Amino acid sequence: MKTDKGKKNKMAKMTTVGAALVAAATIVAAGCCDKENCTAGEAETHATPAAAAATATDPNEVVLSVGDAKLTRGAIDADIATILAAQGADIPPEQLDRVRHTIALQLAQEFLVEQTLGAKAAALGYTITDADVQAREAEILASVGGAPDAPKTLDELLAKAPLGKDRTLARLKASLAVEKMIKGEVIDKDATDYAADAQKIVERIVAENAKVLTDEQARAKLVEFKQQLDALPAEEMPAKFAELAQAHSACPSGRKGGDLGEFTHGQMVPEFDKVAFEQEVGTVSEPVKTQFGYHLVLTTKKTPAVEAKDDQPAAPEKVQASHILIKTGEAQKVPELNEVVDFLKRNNNRQAMGDFALACIRAANVEATGEFKQLLPPPEEPKAPAAAPAEAPETPVETAE
Fold first, then answer.
1. What Å distances lie between residue 179 and 86, 121, 183, 184, 373, CA to CA?
2. Does the structure show a pLDDT above 70 at 94?
3. CATH code, domain carrying 285
4. CA 226: distance to chain centroid?
5. Cβ atoms 83, 162 nearer than 8 A
6. Domain count, the chain
7. Would you say 296 and 225 are in contact if contact means Cβ atoms under 8 Å apart?
8. What is residue 373's predicted lDDT score, i.e. its pLDDT?
9. 52 pLDDT exceeds 70?
10. 3-state DSSP helix/strand/coil % of the chain, to nearest 5
């Protein structure tokens, strides 16, 4: 399938707000992480040491603002110092600059989420109860449990938060409010009927499975086709070959009567290549086994190699061929209809959640400077007309590059 570049950029930007939608990550995002959560590998994906060092500038510089709410360089540096005071001994010196930069981005991201999605949740009246906190407490403790020194209560866990219990708990509650809002405004309002699309997917899998035969069955089917073709006058055989390809070939080229066009040595898998080049034009091969299944190959044209001469460049030998492909192998598992419905709903909701979050951020008058600009959402793009579905490759017997 073709990749929608705009969508990829959009989803990349959505990673900046994703943490707010995963409440179990809230404690970590607030700085209550251990060595595994603050790895150098994660930090290296964000910036170089030089970029991190460049953040040591005017403490009054506003690096991120949402309306009247401002986040200064000094506030970020103070939080980084607090976090490193608690965990700095665990960070190798050569990785310290990268870790500083990673933490700075996390803190700025939290501020952005709090002032946009958090504010939107509050404006819509989503509040958090003690029962909500207790339910999340059970989830968090289950996720960090198992170790001998694992905390037994949320209070124990919050007591280890470098930025303080009250601040970390407030952010946990804010993330829960965002979750409630997302559920109420996006997931619960999804009235899409996915059953029809799910049924089409199941039917397509069943249809594809019907084309997958055992080696013995596939070979026998092609032997039968070859017998039909060999019994015809030479002038009638190509049309019958195309008819059989259209009706039975598992290759997309079947729509064109099996025609693969011209190709040179090495463009097809070796077994197919050998037959197509060695047999005479107008000849139908015996069944040929490749990694894709069994083929009947009809060579329709040969073009000899040309040596370079004067201004004419050299050209390799070429052939043009058609084929009928019968797939072999194991059939796909046919999923239950409700499994496909759930899959489609999750995918659709994931996209809708991203769109909702981006809309909240775009509407909030967000400004950023320096390295924090990467937290801004991309400009809203005009909706393009729906593209036609991408077609499958025409030559499944081509070799992988």
1. 30, 9, 6, 9, 25
2. yes
3. 3.10.50.40
4. 43
5. yes
6. 2
7. yes
8. 92
9. no
10. 55, 15, 35
Structure tokens at 97: 């600059």
Alpha-carbon span 114 to 93, nearest angstrom: 32
Q: Above 60 in pLDDT, residue 126? A: yes
Q: Is residue 241 part of a domain?
A: yes
Nearest to 205 by CA among 88, 295, 331, 115: 331
Task: With beta carbons less than 8 A apart as the criterion, state whether 292 and 183 touch.
Answer: no
Position 93 pLDDT exceeds 50: yes
Which residues 6+ apart lie within 8 Å of 243 measured at CB? 257
Quickly tell me which residue has 């039917």 as its tokens: 203
User: Is residue 383 in a domain?
Assistant: no
Convert the pLDDT of each residue in 304-330 to its tens digit: 999 888 878 889 999 999 999 998 877
Q: What angle do CA 373, 376, 380 make, to 5 degrees?
A: 135
**Closest among 294, 359, 295, 300 to 328, alpha carbons compared:** 294
If we measure between CA atoms, which residue out of 327, 322, 329 comes closest to residue 244? 322
- For residue 48, the surrounding DSSP H or E stretch is none
Q: How many whole angstroms separate alpha carbon 25 and alpha carbon 12? A: 19
Range of the domain at 251: 215-328
pTM comes to 0.54
